[in-house]
Design goal:
Elements: E1 5-10, E2 13-17, H1 26-31, H2 35-59, E3 64-70, E4 73-78, H3 85-108, E5 112-115, E6 118-121, H4 125-141, H5 149-162, H6 164-190, H7 193-221, H8 226-230, E7 236-242, E8 245-250
Parallel strand pairs: 2-3
Antiparallel strand pairs: 1-2, 3-4, 5-6, 7-8
């Protein structure tokens, strides 16, 4: 049973919001209603960020199961991650590019300006703040650590010379080093529990990504390619049971419900 609430379907992709998203609205409610529109606008930009990934993936024939908004950001669940470095690079970089494009548009209209003194806001503080938040979001996602986009960008670049398995290990190790540094900063500098939790999350995500990819590469090395794992045997096809679970099911013989057995997930 899915815990998220469905917001709608955009460009053929279901959009959900997790109930914990309400956590980010509490500061706005407690601090005054002026903060709520900015928070909602920011998460609208996060949604555009995720659609950047999804629509770029679609150009490579990769579908998106859904997009879910969480308190720490959004997640676009792609049906698969491409092994080709070029495709992975473009899909990963598409999200931050959307954020930088939003900043460029707002800057073009004068809501944000760059001078010798740094960034400055125009009279429209709402759009100026939104521009700065998008700039921060784009830069943050380029941190070379999984599960941020920067980790996948780095893996794609390293894959050209080192192969996918070794590139994943190198990128994951760098991510864990950054996570440890961020965690120490959270303890001794910012003293922020949220930053510490984020550091632990990055550390675990980097390790999880490494183990998953190394397992996939070992299977390929033994002749168990994606096709042999996910290609349904004759008379069966894969059925989506929700929540990321798939199950082999016999192909229906009914003329009204006939789906080929050669279905990719």
């Amino acid at each position: 049973m899915r815990l998220s609430w469905k917001l709608g379907r955009i460009a053929g992709i279901d959009v959900f919001v997790h109930p914990t998203f309400l956590i980010v609205l509490l500061p706005g409610v407690l601090g005054g209603s002026d903060a709520i529109p900015l928070i909602l606008a920011l998460f609208g930009c996060v949604l555009l960020h995720e659609f950047g990934h999804a629509l770029m993936a679609r150009r490579f024939g990769i579908g998106t199961l859904d997009i879910t908004l969480y308190p720490i950001g959004g997640v676009a669940r792609l049906m698969r991650i491409p092994r080709a470095p070029g495709a992975e690079f473009l899909i990963a970089i598409a999200g931050p590019v959307v954020n930088f494009a939003i900043v460029a548009v707002l800057a073009a209209f004068g809501f944000l300006s760059l001078s010798a003194e740094g960034l400055s806001l125009s009279q429209s503080s709402f759009l100026g703040q939104l521009a700065i938040l998008n700039l921060g979001l784009g830069i943050f996602n380029l941190i070379p650590a999984f599960p941020m986009d920067g980790g996948r960008v780095l893996r794609a670049l390293l894959s050209v010379g080192f192969g996918r398995a070794r590139a994943t290990t190198m990128a994951a190790r760098l991510g864990r080093v950054l996570a440890i540094a961020f965690g120490l900063m959270a303890i001794f500098v910012t003293q922020s529990l949220l930053h510490l939790i984020l550091a632990v999350f990055i550390f675990l995500a980097s390790r999880s990504e490494e183990l998953q990819v190394l397992s996939e590469e070992r299977m390929r090395a033994h002749g168990l390619s994606d096709q042999s794992v996910w290609y349904a045997p004759p008379g069966y096809h894969w059925v989506d049971r929700g929540g990321g679970f798939w199950q082999l099911s016999p192909v229906s013989t009914s003329p009204h419900d006939r789906s080929g057995s050669n279905r990719w997930i």
